[in-house]
Design brief:
The complex is a heterodimer. Chain A is mainly alpha-helical. Chain A contains 16 helices and 2 strands. Chain A has a two-stranded antiparallel sheet with strand order 1-2. By secondary structure, chain B is an alpha/beta fold. The chains are: A mainly alpha, B alpha/beta.
C-alpha cells in the first residue's frame, strides 16, 4: 500500500471537519427559531451518545445514564437558586458532582459486568428518581423545580454552549484515541482478564471512563434543566434518556465518534419528522425502522460506510481469497 | 528468580492447589506437568494474580507478588500466555502485540516506540504479511505465535507459557519448540505447562509433576520419565505400535446398539457406505476452504481424517453435519441425500457429532448434558434411561459424577460427557473433532480406547485427529488433507510402512 492513500483520507477527514465546524458556527444566523431548537436538541443527544460510548468502549454497557442526567439537572438548578451560582458555573458543578458520584459507584458497580452491570445502572437511576420525588423539601417532589431560562432565553447563546460542549467531547475522544489508552480500552473490551494479564490497569481505566462519561452527561442534564426552565423527577430521570444513547450508538455505529454523531443526528431528526408527518403511530414506524436498520446494519451506519470504504481502499483482499 | 512457597487454594471443599513450592530461576525452563485437573492452570492463575491464594507466597527477586492485581504482577515482570489463545479480536496483529508493549513492564514506551518494538517481533515470528490482519484471519499456529510474541514484547523476567503446543501437529510442534528455544535466554525464566512430553523432554531443565493439587515430585526430565508414580498417574503404560492392548479391550464391547433397528443393515453393509461424500466444496464468505473432496465411511468402519491445522478437516465435518452450507457437491448418509438438510435433522437421522473443544453446557449437570443429547431425537428419547446406563457402563467415572456440574469436571471427563452426549442420540455414525486436544497422555489413551469400543459396538466413526500415531492405531482407513484437498487415502496398516508419510508427520 502506498503512503498517499492514507494521506488522502486524512486530508479528506480534516477538510470535512473544518467545513462542518464552520457550517455549525454559521448555522444560528441562517435558520429560524424552530430549526435552531432542533439543532440544539440534536447536539444535546450527540453529547449524550458520545459520553455513553466512552464507557461502552471499555466493555461496560450502561442502561442508567439518566441517573447522571437527572442529578446534573437538579444539582445545577439548586446550585443556581440556593447557592446563587451563575448558570455556567452551576452546569460545571453539576458535571463535577455527577463525575464524583460515578467515581464512588465504580468501586461497587465494576465488581460485576455485562447484563448485571446494566441492571445495576438501570436500578440506580430509578433509586435517584424516587429520591428526587421523596425529598420534597429540596427538590419540590413530584411538582418539580423551575429554573431561570438559560442566558436569559437567548437561544443562540444556548446553541453555542452546547456546540462547544459537543466539540470539547469530540476533541477529548479524538485525542484519547491517539494515546496508548485507546489500545488498553479496546483490549479490555475483548477480555478484561487478558488485558490485566498484559499490564493494563482495567478498573482504574474503567473508573476514569465512567466518571468522564457521567460528568459530560451531568452537564447535558444541567443544560436541559436551564434550557427547558422546568424539571421534575419523571422528566429528569426518564428511562428514555438512558435508552436514547444506547439506540443512537448502535444505529450510528458503536465505539466511534462518527457513529455516535450519525446516530444522534439521524434518529433525533427522524423522530421529529415522523412525529410531525404521522398523526398517529409515529413511534411504531420509528420502532420498525430501528429494527430493520439493526438487522441489516449490525455495525451501524458508520460500520457500513467504513466497511465499504476500506474494501474500496484495499481491493487486494478479494484477489487474495 | 520466581519463588513459589507453600501456595494453596481451595474451591469449595476441593483443594485445587495444595502446598505447592518450587522455583523458576532466570535462564532456566521449568515444566509443570500432570493429569488434567491436577492444579496446573490454577497454579498459573495464582502466580499471575487472576486468583488470590488462600495461603503461601509468590516472590520475584524477594519482592512479594502475592495479593497484587494481575496488571501489577505483569508490570513487575511476569508475562503469561493463555491456554486457549485469547487475542484481542478487534485489534490487528500488530496492535495486539503493541498493546502489551504499551502497558507492560516498560510503560515509558510511547505509541510509536511500541509500534517499532512490536514490528520487530512481527518479523521475528514471521507474521509480516498478517501484521494488519485481524486475529480471526490467522491459522491456529499463527495465533499461538502472536500469543507468545505478545508476552515477549513486555520484556518479561518470567514467562509463563500455558500449553502453547496443544492442538499443534508434529511438524508445528517442532517449529514451536524452536521458538521456545530461541526465546530462552539467561535473563528470562520460563515456566511452561505442557502435555507434549516430547517437548518437555527436549526443552525443560527441570520438571515439576503435579497430582491432585500437590507436587508429586520434581526432578530432571529423565528422572521424571522413569518415575513409577508418574508413569502410572500421568503418562500411562507405554503402548506398542500395533495398539494391541486396545484390540483386546474392545472385544468386551458393550451393547451400544445403533439407530437402525437391525433391519437391512447387515445386508447393505458390504456394498453401500454409510456416509458418502462426493466432490464437496465449502468455505467461509469469500474464502473457499474445501475444494471438491471425496470421502467414504463404510459400515462399522473407523475412518481418520488427518493433516495440519487449517487444512480443512473441521470444515469438512461442519459441511457434513449441516453447520456449514456446502458450495457444491453431495453428502449421502445411508443412501439419502442430506446435503442441504438443516443440522438438527441430520442429527435425528443418526449422524452424531462431538464438536471440537467439547462445547458442554457448563452449568448443567453431567446427567442433564447427556439427556440433552436424546431430548430432541424422537427415536432416542423413549429408551433414554437404558441408553444412559449404557453410557455409564462405557464411562464408569461419569456415573460417579452424574449430578456434578459439567464445568467442574476435568478435561478428560468433559470429553467423555461430550462423546456420551452424542451417543445418546443413538447415532449410526459418530464424527469426532479432535477429541484429545489438551488431554494428558494417559487420558488420551483412555479416550482412544473408548472410541475403539464405540466402534466395536457397531457404530461407524469419522475421526478428525491431530495425533497421527494414535489415529493410525485405531483407524481402519486414513484420509490425509492438505489445503482443502484429499491428498492420500489409504488403509491405516499400510501407512505404517510408508516412510515418507511417517516422516512428514514427525513419526519417522
Amino acid at each position: 500500500m502506498t503512503s498517499s492513500a492514507p494521506a488522502r483520507w486524512r486530508f479528506l477527514g480534516t477538510a470535512t471537519g473544518i467545513i462542518a465546524v464552520a457550517a455549525l458556527a454559521a448555522l444560528p444566523f441562517l435558520v429560524d427559531a424552530y430549526m435552531l431548537h432542533w439543532a440544539i436538541t440534536v447536539l444535546k443527544f450527540a453529547v449524550l451518545t458520545l459520553a455513553w460510548d466512552i464507557l461502552a468502549r471499555t466493555g461496560q454497557v450502561s442502561f442508567g445514564h439518566a441517573a447522571f442526567f437527572g442529578l446534573g439537572a437538579y444539582v445545577a438548578v439548586l446550585a443556581s437558586s440556593t447557592l446563587g451560582l451563575g448558570q455556567i458555573l452551576s452546569m460545571l458543578v453539576a458535571g463535577v458532582v455527577a463525575a464524583g458520584l460515578a467515581t464512588c459507584l465504580s468501586a461497587l458497580f465494576f465488581r460485576v459486568r455485562g447484563i448485571y452491570f446494566a441492571i445495576l445502572t438501570l436500578a440506580f437511576a430509578e433509586v435517584l428518581k424516587v429520591c428526587a420525588t421523596m425529598l420534597t423539601g429540596m427538590t419540590g417532589g413530584a411538582m418539580g423545580l423551575s429554573a431561570r431560562p438559560l442566558f436569559g432565553g437567548d437561544a443562540v447563546k444556548s446553541y453555542f454552549f452546547i456546540l462547544i460542549l459537543a466539540l470539547f467531547t469530540i476533541a477529548t475522544m479524538w485525542l484519547l484515541s491517539r494515546t496508548r489508552y485507546h489500545f488498553g480500552i479496546t483490549a479490555m473490551r475483548s477480555s478484561p482478564e487478558v488485558a490485566a494479564a498484559f499490564g493494563i490497569p482495567v478498573v482504574p481505566i474503567r473508573t476514569i471512563a465512567y466518571s468522564v462519561s457521567a460528568g459530560l452527561t451531568g452537564v447535558v442534564g444541567a443544560f436541559y434543566a436551564f434550557y427547558t426552565t422546568y424539571i421534575n423527577p419523571e422528566s429528569a430521570f426518564d428511562v428514555a434518556i438512558s435508552v436514547a444513547p444506547v439506540i443512537m450508538s448502535i444505529f450510528g455505529g458503536l465505539y466511534s465518534i462518527a457513529g455516535g454523531i450519525i446516530g444522534a443526528v439521524t434518529l433525533t431528526l427522524l423522530q421529529e419528522y415522523l412525529r410531525t408527518t404521522f398523526e398517529y403511530g409515529s413511534l411504531i414506524v420509528y420502532g420498525l425502522l430501528l429494527i430493520v436498520s439493526i438487522l441489516f446494519m449490525p455495525k451501524g451506519v458508520w460500520g457500513l460506510v467504513s466497511g465499504l470504504a476500506s474494501r474500496q481502499r484495499s481491493p487486494a483482499r478479494e484477489v487474495a481469497s | 528468580m520466581l519463588r513459589i512457597r507453600n501456595l494453596s487454594k481451595s474451591f469449595g471443599g476441593v483443594r485445587a492447589v495444595d502446598n505447592v513450592s518450587f522455583d523458576v530461576p532466570l535462564g532456566a525452563i521449568v515444566a509443570l506437568i500432570g493429569p488434567n485437573g491436577a492444579g496446573k492452570t490454577s497454579t498459573f492463575n495464582l502466580i499471575s494474580g487472576l486468583l488470590p491464594p488462600d495461603s503461601g507466597s509468590v516472590t520475584l527477586f524477594d519482592k512479594p507478588l502475592t495479593g497484587k492485581s494481575p496488571d501489577e504482577i505483569c508490570r513487575a515482570g511476569v508475562a503469561r500466555t493463555f491456554q486457549i489463545s485469547q487475542l484481542f479480536e478487534t485489534l490487528s496483529i500488530r496492535e495486539n502485540i503493541q498493546t502489551a508493549a504499551l502497558f507492560g513492564r516498560s510503560t515509558r514506551d510511547d505509541v510509536q516506540a511500541a509500534a517499532r518494538r512490536s514490528d520487530e517481533l512481527v518479523e521475528a515470528f514471521d507474521l509480516g504479511s498478517h501484521a494488519n490482519a485481524l486475529p480471526k484471519d490467522l491459522t491456529f499456529a499463527q495465533r499461538r505465535n502472536v500469543e507468545i510474541a505478545r508476552a515477549l514484547v513486555m520484556d518479561p523476567q518470567i514467562l509463563l507459557l500455558d500449553e502453547v503446543l496443544a492442538g499443534l501437529t508434529a511438524s508445528e510442534i517442532e517449529e514451536a519448540i524452536a521458538i521456545v528455544e530461541r526465546v530462552k535466554s539467561p535473563t528470562v525464566g520460563i515456566l511452561l505447562v505442557e502435555h507434549q512430553m516430547r517437548a518437555v523432554m527436549r526443552l525443560a531443565d527441570s520438571v515439576v509433576v503435579m497430582m491432585n493439587g500437590g507436587v508429586l515430585m520434581q526432578g530432571s526430565p529423565e528422572e521424571v520419565r522413569k518415575h513409577p508414580k508418574v508413569l502410572s498417574a500421568y503418562l500411562g503404560e507405554e503402548i506398542d505400535a500395533s495398539g494391541s492392548h486396545i484390540a483386546t479391550r474392545s472385544e468386551e464391547a458393550l451393547s451400544l446398539n445403533s439407530t437402525a433397528d437391525g433391519g437391512g443393515r447387515s445386508v447393505s453393509a458390504a456394498a453401500e457406505p454409510v456416509l458418502s461424500i462426493r466432490n464437496l466444496s465449502a468455505g467461509y464468505g469469500p474464502l473457499t476452504a474445501l475444494h471438491g473432496i471425496d470421502i467414504d465411511v463404510g459400515d462399522n468402519e473407523l475412518v481418520a481424517l488427518i493433516g495440519s491445522n487449517g487444512m480443512g478437516k473441521s470444515t469438512t465435518l461442519k459441511a457434513i453435519s449441516g453447520l456449514l452450507v456446502p458450495l457444491a457437491g453431495k453428502v449421502h448418509f445411508e443412501g439419502r441425500d442430506v446435503t442441504h438438510l438443516p443440522a438438527h435433522s441430520i442429527v435425528r437421522l443418526g449422524l452424531g457429532q462431538v464438536p471440537e473443544g467439547r462445547q458442554l453446557f457448563q452449568y448443567m449437570s453431567v446427567e442433564d448434558n447427556l439427556m440433552l443429547g436424546a431430548a430432541f431425537v424422537a427415536q432416542a428419547w423413549g429408551a433414554r434411561r437404558e441408553r444412559l446406563d449404557e453410557i455409564f457402563a462405557l464411562f464408569p467415572r461419569l456415573a460417579e459424577r452424574r449430578s456434578q456440574r459439567a464445568g467442574s469436571l476435568s478435561g478428560g471427563e468433559q470429553q467423555m460427557v461430550a462423546i456420551g452426549r452424542a451417543l445418546m442420540a443413538r447415532p449410526r455414525l459418530l464424527m469426532l473433532d479432535e477429541p484429545t486436544i489438551g488431554l494428558a497422555p494417559i487420558v488420551v489413551a483412555e479416550t482412544f480406547e473408548a472410541i475403539s469400543r464405540i466402534k466395536a459396538a457397531g457404530v461407524s466413526v469419522l475421526l478428525v485427529e491431530q495425533n497421527v500415531g494414535w489415529a493410525l492405531r485405531v483407524a481402519d482407513r486414513v484420509y490425509v488433507m492438505e489445503s482443502g484437498k484429499i491428498v492420500l487415502a489409504e488403509k491405516a496398516e499400510n501407512l505404517w510402512a510408508n516412510r515418507e508419510f511417517l516422516q512428514s508427520f514427525g513419526l519417522g
